Amino acid sequence: MNNMMTRALSGAVYVAVIIACVLAGREWFLALTALLIVLSMAELQRLLCGRAMMNAAVRFCDIAMALCLLFGLYGLNSFMMPLAGLSVAAAVYVPVRIVLAVTDRTEMPGRSVLYSFLTIGYIAWPLSLLFCAYVLGSWQIVMATFVFLWLNDTGAYLSGRSFGRTKLCERLSPKKTWEGFWGGFVLTLVAGIFCGWLTAGQSASVHDYVLWGIYAAIVSVVGTFGDLFESLIKRTIGVKDSGNLIPGHGGILDRIDSLLAVAPFAALMAFLV
Predict the structure, then answer these.
(1) CB-based contacts of 258: which residues, under 8 Å, 6+ apart?
(2) What burial class does residue 109 get, using C-beta atoms within 10 Å of its C-beta: 0-12 exposed, 13-18 middle, 19+ buried?
(3) CA distance 272 to 266
(4) Which residue among 75, 103, 199, 238 is the one 20 to 30 A from 81 at the CA level?
(5) For residues 134 and 136, what is the distance between their CA atoms, to the nearest angstrom?
């Protein structure tokens, strides 16, 4: 009971912080996104490399590159700006990272370079695209994305616990079932259709319902695979959680694994809307 209470309270605080930052405005959501990038990249670096294989200069360089990419998108006016921001940041990052790799005295500096690009591509780029979605499509699309992910997890948990029999991917996540997957999918799809009516009001057309329904379905399916991919990383390394920052839930990366996979589609949705 104590563990369940701790999990519920920490989860409620996590959700409340996200909702507050989404509603508070661009600067607050920018700060939240930057915090998620720093914390989750630090977790993944620690999981992949350990302290011996990646020195402090490399860690700082990677996180600085990620934040330059994110803050370069502030004041975004064009959907093509993420590419421009990535080009400018990479023009500085790549030569600096090469120098650090050549002067690296650890046993396998080449592997450290690969891990650097993995952490940036897996975490910083998707979260930067999520910020693009916030700027391009206002806060509604970002809020809907979080809500869809939360509903998908809730529906999957409840239906899986009640009816779960057939394992979805037992090798990576023994508790996930196909019954749970379809429960989360249906609940998220219904929420998407409702969101189509909510955003368009009385003038909602079939196009609005179809667009939001498709987006909700994509969030459910892609989010599930994002969760499984992070489970693959943890299974490969041999750990249960990415960290212990959130009591009862693990690390930040455990909470945003689905979001990382869905974020590019949120940016696309913002562009379409």
Answers:
(1) 149, 152, 153, 222, 223, 224, 226, 227
(2) middle
(3) 10
(4) 199
(5) 6
Q: Residues 95-113: pLDDT tens digits?
A: 777 777 777 776 666 777 7
Residue 110 to residue 101: CA distance in whole angstroms = 7
Per-residue H/E/C for the chain: CHHHHHHHHHHHHHHHHHHHHHHHCHHHHHHHHHHHHHHHHHHHHHHHCHHHHCCHHHHHHHHHHHHHHHHCCCCCCCCCHHHHHHHHHHHHHHHHHHHHHHCCCCCCHHHHHHHHHHHHHHHHHHHHHHHHHHHHHHHHHHHHHHHHHHHHHHHHHHHHHHHCCCEEECCCEEEEEHHHHHHHHHHHHHHHHHHHHHHHHHHCCHHHHHHHHHHHHHHHHHHHHHHHHHHHHHHHHCCCCCCCCECCCECHHHHHHHHHHHHHHHHHHHHHC
The region of weakest confidence among 46-55, 63-72, 161-170, 222-231 is 46-55
The pLDDT tens digits for 141-174 are 999 999 999 999 999 988 988 887 888 888 888 8
